[in-house]
Structures are given as C-alpha cells and as structure tokens.
Amino acid sequence: MIATLPRDEQVLVKRLRALVTECIPQATEKAYDGQVMPFYTRNRLICFIWPPSMAWEPNANFEKQKAKGVALGFNQGSLMANEDGVLLAEGRKQVYMMYFKKLDDIDEHQVRALLFEAAMIDGQFAKKKKRK
C-alpha cells in the first residue's frame, strides 16, 4: 500500500516503519480500515503512521494536512512524559502526534526514546495472569 503514496511520503513512512519495528519488535503491524496507514498494537494500540495524502476524514483539507507532513501518532500520548513538548495534543485528550516533512526532520534518538516509552506504557495494559 505504501507504493501508492507520493515519493516524499513513501520515504518518510518507510523510515518511521523501520524505527517502529526496531524499537517495538513485539508489536503487530496492521493496516487500519484498508488505509495505507499502519497501526502498531500489542496489548492496546501503541502508535501509527499517517501520511497526509490519506484523508483523516472525508472532507479533509489536503493542503492543510500536507503542510503538517507525515504524522507519527501515539495512542497513549497523554500518558507520556513529553518533557520537550514535541508531542502535540491538538485538542485531543489521548492521542498525541508529531510530524515530519523530510527525513532530516526525524531526530532518530528522540523518536526511539518516544517509541520505547510508548512500548513501556503499553506493557502496563498487559492482562495479568491468574494464579492458581
């Protein structure tokens, strides 16, 4: 599905996918509702990558989305430390986002740290095994 994206978005999505699979190898990658956007899950939804050419909603403003760039969203973003403020709530209560327009925008050290934190938070949602 990624091959259908514009070239600039493909490059970003592929790099972000590589980082997610490197940092959270236990997560399962799934396409959401037949969209190009990959979601990552284990105990709950952990994160997702959303290219701007895939509309959030039917009447979305493509130019406004394109101006932001490819999104890396954290489903439990409200539980993350976000000490440097790179995760944006944008009026949402739980899901926080960061955006990338070009490869140089990806601070791999920072993204890895956020992915590790998201995986740790997801681990808190693991079902407790009953003791007999």
Could you describe the 3D structure shown?
By secondary structure, this protein is an alpha+beta fold. 30% of the residues lie in helices and 18% in strands. Strands 1-2-3-4-5 form a five-stranded antiparallel beta sheet, sandwiched between helices. The model has no long low-confidence stretch (mean pLDDT 89).
Task: Give a quick rundown of the structure.
By secondary structure, this protein is an alpha+beta fold. The protein has helices spanning 7-23, 62-68, 108-123; strands at 28-31, 38-41, 45-50, 70-74, 96-100. It is globular, with a radius of gyration of 15 Å.
Beta-strand percent range? 15-25%
SSE topology string: HEEEHEEH
Q: How many separate helices?
A: 3
Largest beta sheet: strand ordering: 1-2-3-4-5
Give the % helix: 25-40%
Name the poorly predicted regions.
none
The N- to C-terminal Cα distance equals 46 Å
Question: How much is the radius of gyration in Å?
Answer: 15 Å
Give the CA-based shape: globular
Tell me the major beta sheet. Answer: 5 strands, antiparallel
